[in-house]
Structures are given as structure tokens and as C-alpha cells.
Design brief:
By secondary structure, this protein is of the alpha+beta class. It has five helices and 17 strands. A hairpin with a 2-residue loop joins strand 5 and strand 6. Helix 3 packs across helix 4.
Length: about 300
């Protein structure tokens, strides 16, 4: 997948001190250098790198001119455990993402993130950073976050896309239960990129899982197939092939926060979705939410 891209994240106000102490984390195939310790990322520290000092020339204070900032796009996202308005707009050299009193700047190459405001005691900063802000920064580097669950079987990934409540987490947990030959790769967010074939780019924080259950291996995993979950009206799981056009739309529909993407990113995203549909088997999966159907589903996945 090539060299590991570096993303610099400044969360504390720039001081006169010429050096900035940062910590290294590995997220979605990128190395995040962050000038703060985030408990939510403890499972993703790079222990070999520990901490490092960067000079002010490497991590300068970004001068963001937001006098003409106007939110051009808005979505409802989960911030602080509730759905809140998240706004995104263009400024010189990048974008501002805002939710409530919090504002982040994301440089237009996705490799610099800076917290612009520091509201006293705002507990939502981590949620906004590891949600909409990081998703946009990755998209600017053509790394896309799918709303889904995933497991690894025989060294390849199987991805399940679906709306909230359709069973992504249940399926991933069931297939990777103790004594199973499968391993849970993701519970809710699946970062991916196209490198001739579609690859998952672990790890990524799965907020519904405790730290001990987070998948922390950093090796990209080729995607074997994608299942798009649908409500099941039969007593048994039913799968069917999805035509390329419908598969393209399904991947686009299940890309996280795509409505925040600027026009140039949307063009690249649509091309990516078409490539996925061309090179990756995509099937619709309808199943009733019963324990028996999950057993049958596991047999279908293992057989395929």
C-alpha cells in the first residue's frame, strides 16, 4: 500500500515553546501525530515510536482566515452520544468543520488537523475529531469510511453494509464468536481504499467496543466480498447478486458523512464506488433477526 502517510493533529494551543511533544497512533493506514494523549486511542498507540518532539517549523500554528466562512454542507452526526448538526465549509487552504462551539480546520490535503477553539471542558472534542473531522481528512486522501461491520475469514475481509439497526454489529459479533475461525475486524466503521483491489485499512476506533476488543493489527486486508443488508421477509437468509450500477449506489449510500464532502472529493468518491462495484463481488443479504438464521448465515459465509 506504499509508505505510511503522516497526519499531524494539533489539539492544544500553540505556545512560544519551540518544541511540541506528540504521540504516534496508527489509524486507517495513517500515522497520526497528536499533541495530546487521547484515551480513546490507547489501543492504537505505536509503542516503537512513543513520544517525539517536533519543532515549530514542523508543527506551526496555522493562521486560518475564516472571516468569509459559510457552512456550505450540513449533516446530522453522532457527537457526544446525541445527533447534532455538523457543518462544513471552505476556507483558504482547507475546510472548517463545526459542531456547537467546536471548530476544526482540515487542510485540503488531509494531512493537517487543528482544533481552532478550546471551549472550557467540552467533552465532545474527541467524538468530533474521530468522527466527521477524521473521516473528511481521510477522504481527502482517498481513504473512505464505510458504515458497516467486517470479519476476516481465511485472510480476507467480508464487509457488511447497512443502515443502523439492520444487524451489522450483531452479524460481526456472531461470526467472530469464541472458537470461530473468523475474526472481527470492525463493528461500525470500515476504512477502505482501492489499490488495484479493495482493501480494508485497519485499525479504526469502534466506539461500541471496549478497548480490549478493538482490532489493532495495522496490516491491510483485501476485501473478498461485500454484503448489503436488507430487511428479511423469509425464515432463512437469502442472498442475491447486485448489478454493478446498484452496487455503485449502495457503496456510495453507505459511505460515512459523504454529504460533507466538497465537490472535488465527491467526484473521486463516485469513481471509487464504481471501481468497487467492478472489482469486488457485491451481494444483497436479507435475513430474519433470529439466532437460527445467524447459524444458517454463518454456513453461507463459510461455504462462499
Amino acid at each position: 500500500m506504499g509508505p505510511t502517510p503522516a497526519v499531524f493533529v494539533r489539539l492544544t494551543p500553540a505556545q512560544e515553546n519551540p518544541d511540541t511533544v506528540v504521540r504516534a497512533y496508527r489509524i486507517a493506514g495513517c500515522r497520526l501525530w497528536i499533541d495530546a494523549c487521547l484515551t480513546a486511542l490507547d489501543a492504537f498507540r505505536e509503542p516503537r515510536l512513543q513520544t517525539k518532539k517536533f519543532s515549530s517549523q514542523v508543527m506551526p500554528k496555522v493562521a486560518v482566515d475564516d472571516t468569509d466562512f459559510t457552512a456550505q454542507r450540513q449533516v446530522q452526526g453522532w457527537v457526544g452520544g446525541v445527533r447534532q448538526a455538523v457543518r462544513c465549509g471552505r476556507v483558504a487552504d482547507g475546510y472548517i468543520i463545526q459542531s456547537g462551539a467546536l471548530r476544526f480546520f482540515v487542510r485540503d490535503d488531509g494531512k493537517w488537523i487543528e482544533l481552532l477553539d478550546h471551549p472550557e471542558g467540552d467533552a465532545n472534542m474527541t467524538d468530533l475529531l474521530l468522527g466527521p473531522v477524521l473521516v473528511l481528512a481521510l477522504a481527502l486522501q482517498q481513504r473512505w469510511c464505510l458504515h458497516g461491520g467486517a470479519v476476516i475469514q481465511r485472510g480476507a475481509a467480508i464487509v457488511f453494509l447497512g443502515e443502523s439497526g439492520f444487524g451489522k454489529s450483531t452479524i460481526a459479533a456472531w461470526l467472530s464468536a469464541p472458537n470461530s475461525a473468523m475474526q472481527r475486524l470492525a463493528d461500525d466503521v470500515v476504512p477502505v481504499a482501492m489499490n488495484e483491489l479493495l482493501h480494508c485499512l485497519p485499525p479504526f476506533p469502534q466506539f461500541n467496543l471496549p478497548l480490549a476488543q478493538q482490532y489493532a493489527d495495522t496490516t491491510p486486508v483485501a476485501v473478498d466480498q461485500i454484503f448489503v443488508l436488507e430487511p428479511g421477509s423469509e425464515r432463512i437468509p437469502v442472498t442475491r447478486e447486485v448489478p454493478a450500477g446498484a452496487a455503485t449506489l449502495a457503496v456510495a449510500r453507505h459511505t460515512l458523512l459523504a454529504r460533507l464532502f466538497p465537490q472535488s472529493v465527491l467526484v473521486r468518491h463516485l469513481k471509487f464506488c464504481a471501481q468497487v462495484a467492478e472489482k469486488t463481488p457485491v451481494k444483497a443479504l436479507a435475513y430474519p433477526h433470529t439466532e437460527g438464521s445467524l447459524d444458517m448465515l454463518k454456513q453461507i459465509i463459510e461455504r462462499d
